[in-house]
Amino acid sequence: MTDRRYLPFLDVTRIFAVLGVVAIHVVGESVEDGTAPLAQDVLRAALMAAVPVFVMMSGALNLAPNALRDGSTEFLRRRARRVLPALAIWSVFYMVVIRGMVLNEDISTDMSLELIVMGKPYVHLYFLIAIAGLYIMTPVLQAFLERDEGRRAWIVGGVASAWMVLAMAPGQLVKAGILVTSPVQESAMTWPLLLTGYYVLGRAMIVRPVPRPVAWAGLALAPFFVLLMAWVFPRSTMEQTGGAPSAWALVLAPDYPSLPVLLYSVLLMAGLSSLLRDWQVGDRARRWLRPLGEATFGIFLVHYAVLVLLRRLLPALDGPSTHSALAAWTLTVVISTLIATIGRKVPGVRLVL
Known about the structure:
The chain is mostly helical and 353 residues long. The chain has helices at 8-32, 38-46, 50-62, 72-102, 109-117, 126-145, 149-175, 191-194, 196-207, 212-232, 238-241, 247-252, 259-276, 283-313, 322-343.
């Protein structure tokens, strides 16, 4: 089975996705404490699909039969070489340098262990842990999907996504005081399971794309979910409600395992996959598009350190205004891209970028 045809829309999509991840982290704190303008609330809601899109693209590529052409052992060895050094080095860097030295947080042995167990050496590094777990499951998932890939991928992805939403909703009710115990918590051991639905749906969208009329209808509905999330989020935080938020607001609050983010992300990615799957580019565009797409991994890893250091050196970038956020985003993207693209050309350094 051969499916090695280059799909440029995947590179374009992950480039925009990493730009969105940087923007979320630039405006995130202001949005959460209620000091951000309304435009930033809407922007944050629109960008909530960035991480799910990353996961779906990873599934689209890694669940392909061609990805396991050399066997499961070789597949896992290649992926481990790509993820594990980066996870180890960047976890230590963010905990020791950024948390401990730059932000002056108390990073004791107990705290470090808890951060690792919870899958949060730093805010964004849970993604590496989740992807590592999904890689481990890939040979089993791909073997099951192989016989009737399109149909099974949609079914498995849909069921796994529904489980994610249902498993995480009770945890939100704990915050509202309705329940006492959460059945599932986000941690290093659960992130891969929670994101399995996104991962498999990414493959489904490539193998059996939705009809074009459905794709256009899904994209037309996407703004509705953006406005819904922008409206719900202020009503789901204690900082903005001044007390315990309503249960419905907590359950619908925009987070990667929540129903609004799931529907929005799937509609967006399914629409793009259907409409752009057959789009091709020339050799010249491919020569710069592929390296830039590959650099998104390094940009993702390094951008938070760049953002934190920029705001320490230039306090004006830490303001809630749109101008401050735009300046912080632009500088973070440019510096992170330079570090990632140059670092990938340096032996040794490229192992963690």
